[in-house]
Amino acid sequence: MRILVVSDTHGNYHLLNRILKTAGTVDLFLHAGDGGNDLLQVAQDFPSLSVQGVTGNCDYFSARPQELLFEVGGKKIFLTHGHQYGVKRDLLRLILKGKESGAELIIFGHTHLPLFEQAHGLFIFNPGSLSRYSLGRSPSYGEIEIGPDGIKPDVKFLC
After folding, report:
1. Can you name the CATH fold of 2-157?
2. Residue 18: helix, strand or coil by DSSP?
3. Cα distance between residue 53 and residue 102, in whole Å
4. Per-domain residue ranges for the chain?
5. CB 129 within 8 A of CB 7
């Protein structure tokens, strides 16, 4: 199973659209918040793509949930933007929530910084940001493969 993950697109739909058009086969598209209108546009432009997303702190008036817990490829995933867990300070509250939920993979955004680490028996993944607010870094997104060999995440940077 191949999952494409973005967060914090903040209206940069042009770049997101380009990535989706060149990504090849994707089984699931996840948006970790701060791009609610971008997510709606993805659903319209790519109707056959399976799409999931959560609301972020800049998704004013969004009806999307703040977090989702679901299973994909036999792995339980916890998806959140992360602002409600203080992820700009540390990941402890997020990790505790993930463990409490029985998740094997936590995907979050908010920091605009890509991250992949294994801690406390969990995979923790942040794809970074596709927005102009990428904190001086190249915009980034994530790809996650889930298969017989487990969870294999990768961060892709754009020049």
Report:
1. Purple Acid Phosphatase; chain A, domain 2 (3.60.21)
2. helix
3. 19
4. 2-157
5. yes
Residues 38, 16, 53, 106, Cα dihedral to 10°: -150
Provide the residue-wise pLDDT of the chain in tens; the chain has 159 residues.
Answer: 999 999 999 999 999 999 999 999 999 999 999 997 899 999 999 999 999 999 999 999 899 999 999 999 999 999 999 999 999 999 999 999 999 999 999 999 999 999 999 999 999 999 999 986 666 678 999 999 999 999 999 999 987
The residue whose two tokens read 């609610």 is 36
The two beta strands, 2-6 and 51-53, are unpaired
Q: Tell me which residue of 69, 75, 85 sits closest to 145, measured CA to CA.
A: 75
Helix pair angle (36-45, 13-22), 10° resolution: 40
Euclidean distance between the first and final Cα of the chain, in Å? 27
- The pairing of strands 140-147 and 150-157 is antiparallel
